[in-house]
Amino acid sequence: MIPKEAIILAGGEGTRLRETLPGLAKVLAPVAGKPFLHYVLQYFSAAGIEKFIFALGAFHDQVENFLSKLQPTIDYSIVIEPEPLGTGGAIQHALNYCNENTVAVINGDSLFRVNLENISAFHHMCGAECTMALKPMKSFNRYGEVVLHHDYSIASFREKTEVKEGLINGGFYLLNKRLFSSHKMPVKYSFEEDYLGKLFAERRIFGVQQNGYFIDIGIPDDYLNAQADFKKVS
Questions:
Q1: What is the distance between the alpha carbons of residues 18 and 34, in angstroms, rounded to a whole number?
Q2: What residues are paired with 215 via a beta bridge?
Q3: By the 8 A CB rule, do 107 and 91 touch?
C-alpha cells in the first residue's frame, strides 16, 4: 500500500542558489515558467499521495502564498519551525501532524520520480524503519555514494569523491513513524548525517534502487539543467 501522506522539506535557505535567486525560497525557483515545487506536487499527487505536510522555515511566507493559490487542488498542512531544527528536527516536528504510520519524506528542492508501489512494497516487506530511494549514477563527485549489503540494508556511506558508477541518496524516504519516533534524538539534528550516517548499522534502514528521472536544483549548474529538462516537456 502506498503512503497517503508526505512531508515536504521546504525550509532551507538555498545558500548555494542565493546569487542566482536572491530573496526567493529555493523550492519556488522558477523552472520553465513554474515554481519547482509545482512539479514535485504534480508528480506525487498523480502517484497517489493524498496529503502533504510542508515543513517550512526560511521564506515560509512565500511558500504559504504559493500554496494558498492551489486550494482546493491539494490537501495540505503547514508546519513552521520555531527555530532552525535541521532536516532531522524538521521531520520529527512534522511527524506530529501526520496521521498515518507510513509517511513519505521528500526534499522539496529535488524531484525523484520513484515508483511508489515498488518502494512501498519493499518497505513493508522488510519491516523497515526507513527506506531510502537510491539513484544509480555514473561519473559523479558531488554526491556521496551509498553502498548496500546483499539484503539491501545500508553497508556504508562513502564521502563525496570521484565515483565511476554507484548509487546516491535521492532525497526520498519512507518512514515507519512509530519506529522512527521511538528513539530519542536531539531537537535539532541532521537527518542525513546524524540519523542515516551514524545510525544505519543499528536501525532497520534500507535502500532501494529507483531508475526514474532525478534532478536536484541545489546548485546553479543543476538548476540550469532543470530548466532545459522541463522546457522540453512543458
A1: 18
A2: 111
A3: no
